[in-house]
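Design job #97: recover the sequence.
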């Protein structure tokens, strides 16, 4: 009887694994589970939040990549995994049994227990939350017309990590459209970023990170650095202004967006896997330490980088590689062959600041400005190709290289 592989999550890692498993003539039955019936490009959601891209542009239907001869797609929400009985429990649906499981359930916003984050700030983690950010922004612009309250025109991004920086770039680009709604000049819309540490973007050299930050400053973004956020209140960010005196200060704004980092899906810890912030330190072949038929990949997974002696950071790039690797290892297990160790060499990373500026590293080379934005688009197109194939890449890819 053919073995049943269940893949949880249709993000970068899950779809790349699906692609690998659907290849060739394996005697396999595959079930893919996701709460949505679409895949979204998680690296581009800031563009939806800022209103410079529609969600249709960064999503495609999962059915487009499912080969019905071997794969069934189930739209459902995973509640827990019972790894002893090899069952996946879904909300309001029958449980699914598996022979092999790939857990690729992605990430969640991390509040670090800071009071008020859940109630008074906006998350930006998926399509609904990103659309909600843009809807909120347009509502504030409308409100300004009525009230002339300057706080309606203030936007605070909490955290200057990759996500915060890319969001600020897109918000700058989206200002014109928002200003039209409010009936003001774009310069009237004020962007702020509050960040805990003083050394921003530690993955890049100081010079390269500084290039990106300076660019945003030139565009008028106000940075408050070395100011850890202690609480979010209604329309207010409370931050530690002076580390020596413990003096707090407040920044008022009607839009507060929370981008201070992510954790892996809560389902992993809830299911009894040894997770820290939703990430499980997996074996070198990407399986769980206690279950050789359970692969944990993408943002739910932690793999040690032997060079830095720290887990690799979670990126789309490593998720795609893990998906491919897990798929190959399951094929090997089915043939009775040994699994292979996962190895990863980062190709670098590039942060966009708006549509035609970016900065980052490609291999050991630092890139910035317009050429970097072209590289960024090539990276985005490649990841679309790896999950969605040529069809989705041609339909949704970025080919506006020419100014
Ligand atoms: P992050 O952890 O990289 O950055 C979060 C930032 O928030 C940090 O600078 C941190 O110091 C700051 N912060 C944390 N708590 C704070 C507080 N209380 N007050 C103020 N600031 C605070 O998280 P991210 O930007 O969400 O990115 C998550 C992961 O996804 C990272 O691994 C990142 O590299 C990756 N990512 C990659 C890309 C890309 O490759 N283009 C894009 C987006 C995200």
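Job complete. Output follows.
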């Amino acid at each position: 009887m053919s073995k049943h592989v269940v893949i949880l999550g249709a993000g970068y890692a899950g779809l790349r694994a699906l692609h690998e498993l659907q290849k060739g003539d394996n005697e396999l039955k595959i079930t893919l589970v996701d709460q949505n019936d679409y895949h979204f490009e998680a690296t581009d959601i800031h563009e939806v939040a800022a209103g410079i891209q529609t969600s249709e542009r960064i999503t495609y239907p999962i059915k487009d990549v499912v080969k019905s001869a071997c794969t069934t797609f189930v739209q459902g929400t995973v509640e827990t995994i019972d790894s002893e009985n090899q069952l996946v429990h879904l909300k309001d649906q029958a449980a699914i049994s598996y022979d092999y499981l790939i857990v690729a359930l992605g990430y969640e916003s991390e509040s670090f227990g800071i009071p008020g984050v859940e109630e008074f700030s906006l998350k930006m983690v998926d399509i609904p939350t990103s659309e909600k950010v843009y809807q909120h922004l347009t509502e504030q612009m409308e409100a300004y017309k009525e009230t002339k309250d300057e706080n309606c025109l203030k936007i605070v991004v909490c955290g200057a990590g990759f996500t915060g920086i890319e969001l600020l770039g897109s918000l700058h680009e989206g200002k014109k459209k928002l200003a039209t709604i409010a009936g003001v000049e774009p310069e009237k819309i004020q962007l702020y970023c509050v960040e805990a540490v003083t050394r921003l973007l530690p993955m890049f050299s100081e010079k390269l990170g500084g290039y990106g930050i300076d660019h945003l400053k030139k565009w008028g973004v106000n940075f408050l650095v070395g100011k850890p956020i202690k609480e979010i209140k209604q329309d207010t960010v409370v931050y530690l202004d002076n580390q020596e005196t413990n003096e707090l200060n407040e920044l008022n704004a009607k839009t507060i967006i929370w981008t201070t980092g992510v954790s892996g899906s809560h389902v992993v810890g809830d299911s009894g896997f040894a997770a820290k912030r939703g990430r499980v330190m997996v074996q070198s072949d990407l399986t769980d330490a206690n279950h050789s038929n359970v692969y944990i990949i993408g943002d739910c997974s932690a793999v040690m980088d032997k060079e830095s002696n720290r887990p690799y950071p979670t990126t789309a790039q490593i998720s795609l590689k893990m998906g491919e690797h897990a798929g190959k290892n399951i094929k090997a297990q089915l043939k009775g062959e040994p699994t292979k160790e996962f190895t990863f060499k980062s190709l670098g990373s590039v942060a966009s600041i708006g549509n035609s500026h970016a900065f980052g590293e490609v291999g050991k080379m630092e890139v910035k400005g317009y050429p970097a934005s072209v590289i960024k688009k090539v990276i985005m197109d490649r990841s679309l190709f790896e999950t969605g194939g040529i069809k989705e890449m041609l339909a949704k890819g970025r080919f506006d290289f020419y100014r």
